[in-house]
UniProtKB/TrEMBL annotation:
The lineage of its organism: Bacteria, Bacillati, Bacillota, Bacilli, Bacillales. GO terms for biological process: L-histidine biosynthetic process. Belongs to the PHP hydrolase family. HisK subfamily. SUPFAM superfamilies: PHP domain-like (SSF89550). InterPro entries: Histidinol_P_phosphatase_HisJ, PHP_dom, Pol/histidinol_Pase-like. Residues 5-189 form the PHP domain. This is Histidinol-phosphatase. Pathway: Amino-acid biosynthesis; L-histidine biosynthesis; L-histidine from 5-phospho-alpha-D-ribose 1-diphosphate: step 8/9. It catalyses: L-histidinol phosphate + H2O = L-histidinol + phosphate. The keyword Amino-acid biosynthesis applies. GO terms for molecular function: histidinol-phosphatase activity. It is an enzyme of class 3 (hydrolase). One of its GO terms (cellular component) is cytoplasm. Pfam families: PHP, PHP_C.
Length: 275
């Protein structure tokens, strides 16, 4: 394995306290040659975060220290592996202006970043789609069906892909099929493949990348990467860069799900590291 470009850090409010050094040491053990720390960016100040702990993103006051520490680690380990400074930025419908301002502030200090969708809106209410299976059940009750939740999620992803967030908009769309996280408990009767293929077409048209995220395979109610094989193959056919990420929130999870990705993709990654 050569890269892992979706990794969290001790600055993650809902992660562990594993240090940057813990992550780097584990990466070196795994033979990873390039890593991107994509910590959850601060959420807009006026966004009514819908989870009890209010810990989806780091505090804005922690952002300068995160960037400084990541830069220190990048320099310290420069002879061991490449470290990229990044963020995982939430696309939140209606808060595009605030998100652009955040990106304008931090963009000059970033090497890499991801644009993800964790929150969807239902009227005046907000929901976090990946918090827990119980909460996902409540979201279904609010929308009336699991199918309606899926549709709203994919509609929101489309808005994220098309959004004008300025020159520092992340070039990679995070875990495209995150809505599948609880699919074994809440299956849908409607097939959403056509919507996903259309999204991939839009990603291709805008020359964006896709996060090829192994974390879904480790989730007991999902058991597949984000995105699963049929969508990953289609993205590759279109020439979209698929960028592996473990979405690790603790050092021991680096590399998770990599062995469950497309075999030809894994082989290509490994061969690229032998050059």
């Amino acid at each position: 394995m050569i890269v892992d470009k979706h990794v969290h850090s001790p600055f993650c409010p809902h992660g562990t306290k594993d240090t940057f050094e813990d992550y780097i040491e584990r990466a070196i053990e795994l033979g990873i040659e390039e890593i991107t720390f994509t910590e959850h960016a601060p959420l807009p100040a006026k966004f009514p975060e819908p989870i009890p702990e209010k810990d989806s993103g780091m505090k804005h006051s922690d952002l300068p220290r995160y960037l400084k520490e990541a830069a220190r680690i990048k320099d310290y380990f420069k002879n061991s592996l490449r470290v990229n400074i990044g963020l995982e930025v939430d696309f939140i419908e209606g808060f595009e202006k605030e998100t652009k301002e955040l990106l304008d502030e931090t963009g000059p200090y970033l090497d890499d970043s991801i644009l993800s969708i964790h929150f969807i809106k239902d009227g005046a209410s907000w929901h976090c789609i990946d918090y827990s299976a119980d909460m996902f059940g409540n979201i279904i009750s609010s929308f009336g069906s699991a199918e309606a939740v899926y549709q709203r999620y994919y509609d929101t992803v489309e808005k994220a892909v098309e959004a004008d967030l300025g020159i520092y908009k992340p070039k990679r769309i995070g875990h495209l099929t995150l809505i599948h996280k609880f699919q074994k408990s809440y299956p849908v009767s409607q097939n959403f493949d056509s919507q996903v293929y259309r999204l991939i077409d839009k990603i291709s048209g805008r020359k964006l990348e896709m996060d090829y995220n192994g974390a879904g395979f480790a989730k007991p109610l999902c058991r597949e990467p984000y995105p699963p094989e049929r969508f990953a193959r289609y993205a590759l056919e279109l020439g979209i860069p698929l960028v592996y990420g473990s979405d690790a929130h603790q050092a021991k999870d680096l590399g998770q799900g990599f062995e469950q990705l497309l075999p030809d993709y894994r082989e290509k990654v490994r061969k690229s590291g032998e050059k």
